[in-house]
Structure to design on (935 residues):
């Protein structure tokens, strides 16, 4: 299957442009007064709603008021048609749709004065239960007497309490639909490759469904079989998981029925033509088990599947060998790949965890002949608007995105053991960095019932358990790890282009299709159109591209260990929520070992911290180099691979990076451990993980770490420009190795030095000013970086190899770098770029010690004076570029608006929109925890 879906995939999915045209044509006031559904479900028939005067007693809670969390923009992700119209016309927000955005945003300027008693100015109390006097409402979903959903006044978070297991999970499904029904419906269609018939044929929607369906082209039988398979092999826990799923789905469907009857369902159903605002005709389809697997396939593709990119790796290796010859070219390629860079920041600081070592004599490589690689077509039989230039362009972009090297990685974690804290209890600040969307992909909840006791965040539609959060006396979180669980095979063709050799037998490929058609709606005025998506599946995965290898026609396929296993992780999440099971770090590791996606997991209770790297890491055949395509022959298959269920032998738990009570842990999608390579490029001497590691290391050395200190460290790292902090000082050493006589260049150098001395932060002059301090220096570095990288490396590498390497790893990912893998306004920045290459090369030119250097010097061909000329020339050019040239503007920002270019904007997935906030590079959902006692 095509490799990973980079994070910018969801950036293209947003409220279609038709909303605004509709508002111009209709009388909002008349519509609201006459025919629209109620603003809230409070009075709906079928819900038992009542004001309560006292909160239910909080369960066993060992946080002692020291657990906090936040998830912007707000808990409420559903809006009626009336609320959507009011928002679009007047900017009004439904209750709890945006109330977390302000506190979240304010940390960027408020963190310097942070104290422990001010933490909940920027976060919310994450204690169990609802304080007396803070209960907003209680609902007994569908009139059940075995579950209640209590929502608090401050945030509207659902606190679900059940007396039976079925009732608890029924309530979780009901609450999820209350908060995210439209989003859940949207994503079950994305996962099935059927977004355009559901939401409209806008080119962005076409591109999105194409991009995801390449990764997981499942049939309905595939989807249904996965949940049953996951349950069957897990014994009693599997049976329990299946019952939980059924109860959860029943709760979702109960809300669909209640909201349909009460006419308070999400207004997007009207705007996309699924419901009629006047007659209430139309249908909101009930959910079923397989919908949850479709949802899981999207989330897993986005955040939990590392690897792939083997064809691009092959192309850059061949370009290097063409430039330098086989031996030197391979050495150059390996130096840029940085599989096991000795200067890389590590999460697990001690020990070695060998995985995918570079073989001395690689076996089974199937490198393509020069110029022979062609992407496999996905879209056929276009009609109507599907044939327009915008549609075909979206398809091309989706195809290109699907085959680029792994460029995803979100989330960070800072965990300090009790040995180094002021209280003697561990402190953790951690959370997933899943982007900014409205409604948010994640939702908050508290679930209390038989065998379940947790509060935290879950992906909408998969919230039968808390996926990231806290239990009674422990908390856990995750970051994307991205180790390689995806491989590319070259299948030899036989008979024609749709038959291949499988273990010596000419075998037909399986054709899987989706025929999608759409017509204009109020929400999306795209003209009617249709097309067919067609994927050819083999036992080695779906066909991604075609080529020749040594003159033989082949199809390149991709195989992911979690393919056909999207539901397997459910058991691990169930265990994390079970207070009777999870009682310490060893049980924590036992739980997350059941999660087959590639994540780094972190744990903290009142006494211990722990770390474990999860994922089904297939054991490769001896001699196979997983960086490149290999022949689809039995000798090169995963060991003990069974294609019927896509199972294999996996590395054992002890082979995964892990530990208990390390002095501290940091992770920002950096390298996990020594000898444990990440699938993505860029894990070298400079990584955004260094921004955390440097700060936490200093705190630990000083001792007495507090929640406040750790939040400050996270917040400051989230405003730091990685290039300014870790690369700029050496660049300026070269520039100032001789007097800088040009006035414009001197001014630029002085401005950069002043900014670096002030911390190299991208932060406002004051809260709400929407102007950066050191704005000129920031503009200069933003303009300089791509210029200096190209001038430093392209002359030595040559255009072909330089271009090939930029497909493996983009040059830059500043907050405003819309060309980067996260797109513009996405928050996450400084993960993927050439900072390590520049750092190592410049240090070499300066004569400094470099561990794991590049194979040769590039800046000025290694000559300091020549390198200086290159840097000074590009710096002068950059300093002369205007703000309008550096920040050209987009749909949200005018040209030259530096602050806006960086700003975080929640991308609309429904009808409610939000304003931008100042840039921060931090988790979307975030916890601050320090447990004071243990069971």
């Amino acid at each position: 299957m095509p490799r990973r879906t980079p994070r910018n995939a969801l950036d293209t999915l947003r409220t279609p442009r038709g909303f605004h045209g509709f508002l111009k044509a209709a009388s909002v006031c008349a519509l609201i007064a006459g025919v629209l559904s109620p603003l809230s479900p409070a009075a709906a028939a079928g819900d038992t709603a009542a004001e309560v005067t006292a909160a239910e007693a909080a369960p066993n809670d060992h946080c002692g008021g020291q657990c906090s969390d936040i998830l912007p923009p707000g808990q409420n992700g559903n809006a009626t048609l009336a609320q959507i119209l009011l928002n679009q016309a007047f900017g009004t927000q439904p209750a709890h749709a945006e109330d977390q955005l302000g506190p979240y945003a304010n940390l960027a300027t408020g963190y310097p004065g942070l104290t422990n008693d001010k933490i909940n100015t920027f976060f919310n109390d994450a204690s169990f239960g609802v304080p007396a006097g803070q209960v907003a409402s209680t609902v007994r979903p569908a009139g059940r007497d075995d579950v209640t959903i209590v929502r608090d006044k401050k945030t509207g978070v659902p606190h679900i309490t059940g007396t039976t297991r079925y009732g608890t999970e029924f309530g979780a499904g009901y609450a999820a639909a209350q908060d995210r029904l439209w989003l859940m419906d949207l994503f079950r269609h994305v996962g099935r490759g059927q977004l355009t018939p559901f939401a409209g044929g806008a080119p962005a929607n076409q591109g999105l469904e194409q991009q995801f369906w390449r990764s997981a082209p499942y049939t309905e039988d595939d989807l249904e079989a996965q949940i049953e398979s996951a349950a069957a092999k897990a014994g009693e826990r599997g049976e329990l998981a299946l019952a939980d799923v059924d109860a959860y789905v029943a709760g979702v469907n109960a809300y669909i029925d209640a909201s349909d009857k009460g006419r308070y369902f999400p207004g997007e159903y009207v705007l996309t033509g699924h419901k009629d605002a006047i007659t209430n005709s139309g249908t909101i389809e009930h959910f079923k088990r397989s919908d949850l697997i479709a949802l899981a396939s999207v989330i897993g593709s986005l955040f939990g599947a590392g690897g792939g990119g083997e064809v691009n790796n092959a192309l850059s290796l061949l370009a290097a060998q063409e430039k330098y010859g086989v031996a030197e070219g391979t050495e150059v390629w390996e130096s840029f790949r940085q599989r096991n860079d000795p200067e890389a920041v590590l999460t697990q600081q001690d020990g070695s965890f060998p995985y995918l070592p570079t073989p001395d004599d690689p076996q089974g490589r199937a490198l393509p002949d020069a110029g022979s690689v062609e992407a496999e077509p996905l879209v056929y039989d276009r009609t109507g608007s599907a044939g327009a230039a915008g549609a075909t362009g979206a398809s091309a972009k989706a195809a290109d995105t699907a085959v680029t090297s792994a460029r995803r990685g979100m989330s960070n974690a800072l965990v300090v053991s009790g040995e180094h804290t002021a209280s003697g209890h561990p402190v953790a600040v951690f959370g997933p960095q899943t982007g900014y969307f409205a409604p948010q992909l994640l939702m908050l909840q508290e679930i209390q019932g038989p065998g379940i006791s947790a509060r935290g965040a879950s992906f909408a539609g998969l919230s039968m358990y808390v996926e990231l959060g806290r239990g009674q006396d422990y908390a856990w979180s995750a970051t994307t790890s991205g180790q390689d669980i995806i491989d590319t095979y070259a299948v030899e063709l036989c008979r024609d282009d749709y038959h291949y050799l499988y273990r010596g037998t000419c075998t037909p490929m399986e054709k899987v299709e989706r025929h999608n058609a759409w017509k204009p709606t109020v929400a999306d005025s795209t003209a009617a159109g249709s097309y067919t998506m067609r994927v050819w599946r083999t036992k080695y995965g779906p066909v991604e591209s075609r080529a020749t290898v040594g003159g033989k026609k082949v199809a390149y396929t991709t195989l992911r260990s979690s393919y056909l296993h999207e539901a397997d992780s459910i058991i691990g999440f169930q265990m994390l929520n079970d207070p009777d099971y999870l009682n310490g770090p060893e049980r924590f590791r036992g739980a997350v070992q059941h999660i087959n996606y590639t994540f780094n997991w972190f744990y903290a209770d009142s006494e211990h911290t722990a770390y474990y790297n999860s994922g089904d890491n297939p054991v490769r055949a001896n001699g196979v180099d997983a960086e490149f395509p290999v022949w689809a022959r039995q000798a090169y298959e995963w060991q003990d691979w069974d294609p019927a269920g896509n199972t294999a032998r996996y590395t054992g738990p002890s082979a995964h990076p892990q530990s208990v009570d390390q002095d501290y842990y940091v992770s920002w999608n950096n390298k996990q451990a020594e000898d444990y390579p990440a699938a993505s490029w860029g894990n070298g001497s400079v990584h955004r993980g260094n921004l955390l590691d440097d700060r936490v290391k200093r705190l630990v050395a000083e001792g007495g770490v507090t929640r406040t200190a750790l939040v400050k460290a996270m917040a400051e790292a989230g405003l730091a420009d990685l290039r300014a902090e870790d690369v700029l000082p050496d660049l300026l050493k070269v520039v100032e190795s001789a007097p800088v006589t040009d006035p414009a260049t001197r001014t630029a150098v002085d401005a950069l030095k002043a900014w670096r001395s002030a911390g190299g932060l991208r932060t406002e002059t004051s809260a709400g000013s929407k102007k950066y301090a050191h704005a000129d220096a920031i503009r200069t570095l933003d303009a300089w970086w791509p210029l200096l990288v190209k001038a430093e490396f392209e002359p030595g590498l040559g255009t072909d190899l330089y271009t090939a390497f930029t497909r493996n790893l983009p040059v830059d990912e500043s907050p405003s770098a819309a060309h980067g893998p996260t797109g513009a306004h996405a928050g996450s920045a400084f993960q993927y770029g050439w900072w390590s290459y520049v750092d190592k090369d410049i240090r070499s030119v300066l004569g400094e010690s470099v561990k794991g250097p590049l194979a040769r010097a590039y800046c000025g061909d290694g000559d300091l004076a020549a390198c200086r000329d290159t840097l000074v020339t590009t710096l002068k050019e950059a300093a002369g570029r205007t703000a309008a040239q550096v920040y050209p503007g987009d749909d949200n920002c005018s040209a030259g608006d530096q602050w806006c270019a960086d700003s975080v904007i929640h991308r609309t997935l429904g009808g409610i929109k939000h304003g931008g906030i100042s840039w921060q590079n931090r988790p979307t959902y975030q916890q601050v925890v320090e447990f004071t006692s243990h069971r």
